[in-house]
Amino acid sequence: MTTAPRLLVSDHVGGFIQVLSVPDGTETARMTGRHLSEHAGFLALPGGRAVCVDERRGELLVLDPFGPQLVAAAIPVAVPAEHLACDPTGRWVAVTTGLGKNDRPWSDLLTLVDLAAGDAVRVRCRVGEPGVTVLGDGDPLVVLRHREPGAFAVHLLADLLAAPPGCPPLTPHACLRLPGDGHGDAQDPLHGRVFAATGAGVHRARRAGDTLLAEPVIPWDSPARGWYLRLDPRRRALWSTLRGGPADPVRWPEWTNQAWRHDLGTDRTTLTDLGPGLVFRLALTKDRAAFTRIHPDGDELLLLDAGLTVRRIPLPAMDGAPRRGGTPWEGVQRRAVAASPGADWVAVTRGGHGEVHLFDARTGAEEAHWKVPTPLHHGGHMLLRTPDDGAEGDLVGR
Q1: What are phi and psi of 18, to 5 degrees?
Q2: How far is the C-alpha of 394 from the C-alpha of 233, rounded, in Å?
Q3: Is 2 a residue whose pLDDT tops 70?
Q4: Is residue 1 one of the residues assigned to a domain?
Q5: Is the pLDDT of residue 1 over 80?
Q6: Mapping DSSP to helix (H, G, I), strand (E, B) and coil, where does residue 6 land?
Q7: What is the mean pLDDT of residues 361-376?
Q8: Paired strand residues for 197
Q9: Superkingdom, according to UniProt (predicted)?
Q10: Taking residues 72-97, what's their average pLDDT?
Q11: pLDDT tens-digit map of 136-150
Q12: For the domain that residue 119 is a member of, what is the CATH number?
């Protein structure tokens, strides 16, 4: 018997999470009073499960959308959550803290969660919204990616587990210098490599015992840069969206966008133009990459196939969408996009309208349109899973 995919839809402002069966749209679970950390996002675990952080309650939630109850465990962690990542076994989850509703970074707390024991330890690292990866099997390294000054900071699992109560400061076991403008993290578990996106390109380092060895930087091959990285575990590639054009955010309709794909087997990089406007996070289906593009002249779902051909599908306009003369970040509606590497479905939200549109990535046809009980402020956030889709091969929260 085949289990239908499950779509988790979150309104992180309204405190709502709903699980829908795909493609029929049947609700299988819902929660209220749960405020997802949208920046940290969802992190896929083996067996179709996922974790996320409830910002208001300060809990790491282990979610099982295919199980008899949605919340399989809830473990206290430090918030506001900035990034989360796990090791290849899915046992160890690291959560860093960031800005929250503050003008500048203020928290230096790092939480390491042992999902097998249902326990966690907290230590102090360094203020500054660090990225994180948990590198390696068995005895992983917790690697923080810092900015200003930039560095990979390596923490040993044993040092973290030996930390006493009281959130003590923890000195890194080793550090590797990076540029100070890092933003975007990924891990390749097959070869024990960690990646960080900077203005100069994608910096990479390989695990060597209990430290990291720097490897050649992967260039963007463009005057633009990526602010986001994700691993495609199915096709063994890194993906990003390169943003170029004017630095002034008010001129966002003039921003250029390129899909950046780097094949980890051949070291070959390809660039595909996506058009002007706001393009950010992407989602990966069985055979395609999916992006959304927001622009005053019309929004689109963009489906990029293996031949790097772009299919452009118009999306209905959003009330409260970013406008000319304003920024695309503050007080506006946006879109979330979700897909599973084990399926051909792509889901896109219509922020402020409480709508989810479901497309067949093979044909570009809209197959369903659902209304959820909340507006999906800021576009909400989504995750699409099948039980054995391999999405857990991407070990960083999205």
Answers
A1: -125, 145
A2: 6
A3: no
A4: no
A5: no
A6: strand
A7: 97
A8: 202
A9: Bacteria
A10: 97
A11: 988 999 999 999 999
A12: 2.130.10.10
End-to-end alpha carbon distance in the chain: 30
pLDDT at 138: 84
Helix (H) or strand (E) segment spanning residue 110: strand 109-114
Residue 398 lies in a domain: no
pLDDT tier, 307 (very low <50, low <70, confident <90, very high otherwise): confident
Number of domain units in the chain: 1
The residues near 152 (Cβ < 8 Å, ≥ 6 apart) are 143, 144, 145, 146, 175, 176, 178, 194, 196, 205, 212
The burial of 158, by beta-carbon neighbours within 10 Å (0-12 exposed, 13-18 middle, 19 or more buried), is given as exposed
| Residue that is written with structure tokens 């910002």 in the block | 55
Q: What are phi and psi of 64, to 5 degrees?
A: -125, 90
Q: How far apart are CA 398 and CA 396, in angstroms?
A: 6
348 HSE (CA, 13 A, CB side): 30
Write the CA distances from 72 to 37, 52, 75, 94, 326, integer angstroms. 18, 12, 10, 18, 42
Question: For residues 19 and 184, what is the distance between their CA atoms, to the nearest angstrom?
Answer: 28
Does residue 98 lie in a domain region? yes
| Closest CA relative to residue 131, chosen from 156, 112, 110, 162 | 110
pTM: 0.97
User: Quick one: how many helices (H) and strands (E) in the chain?
Assistant: 1, 33
Domain that residue 372 falls in: 6-393
40: in domain? yes
Token pair, residue 92, equals 């160890």
CB hemisphere CA count around 398 (13 angstroms): 31
* DSSP letters for 258-281: EEEEEETTT--EEEEE--SSB---
